[in-house]
Amino acid sequence: MSETIYDGGLRHATVLQYRAQYDETVANYRETVLTAFQQVEDDLAALRILSIEIQQQDTAVTSAERNLKIATDRYKLGIDPYLNVITAQTTLFANQQTAVTLRVNQIVDSVQLIEALEPDVLVKGADYTVATVVGADSVLRRGGKVILAELLTGHSTTETVKRVAGTSSA
Q1: Alpha-carbon radius of gyration of the chain
Q2: 28/49 Cα distance (integer angstroms)
C-alpha cells in the first residue's frame, strides 16, 4: 500500500479551489434569481400602473365623446361654429389613440411577464382561441401547453374580480 504523506498542500489547495468554484456558482445562481424576481416585479408594477392609466384614459374618451355630442348639437342648433366640432373630434381621436397605445403597452408588458415567469401551462377561458391568448406563443415555444378551460356562468375571471370588488351584478 502506497500513500503520499506529504503533498505540499495540494489536497488543501484543491479543496479550496472547489469551494471557490462552488461559492461562485451559488453567487451566480443568486444573481440570476434576484434578476428574475426584479424583472417580474417590474412587469407587475408596469401592469398595475397601465391598468390605472387605461381606466383614466377610458374616462377621458367618454368625456371627449360627450363633448363631441354637445359640440355637434350646438352646431346643429346654430349656437357654435363648426370649428368647435372639429376641435372636439380632434380631442376625441387623440384620446382614443392614447387609449389604444396604452392597451398595446399592456399586451407587451403581459407578454414580457409571461416570458419572465416561463410557465409550463397557460390557462384561459374557452371563449379565447390559442391564437388570441396573450403569451401563448412564448409558452408553446418552450414546449409548454395552453389550456382553454370551459366557461361556467358567473365564474369567469371578470365576474370573480367584480365579486371581490363588490360590483358584481349577480
Answers
A1: 29
A2: 31
Short-list 160, 162, 131, CA closest to 146: 131
- DSSP H or E stretch at residue 67: helix 10-76
* pLDDT confidence bin for 101, thresholds 50/70/90: very high
Q: Is 159 exposed, middle or buried (0-12, 13-18, 19+ CB in 10 A)?
A: middle
* pTM of the model as a whole: 0.65
**92: number of Cβ within 10 Å:** 21
* DSSP H or E run through 145: strand 145-149
Nearest-angstrom CA–CA distance, 50 and 47: 5
The C-alpha cell at 142 is: 418552450
Q: What is the largest CA-CA distance in the chain?
A: 114
Question: Three-state DSSP class for 123?
Answer: strand
Each residue of 73-97: pLDDT tens digit?
Answer: 999 999 999 999 999 999 999 999 9
- Contact between 120 and 114 under an 8 Å Cβ cutoff? The reply is no
| Virtual torsion, Cα 135, 141, 144, 150, nearest 10 deg | 50
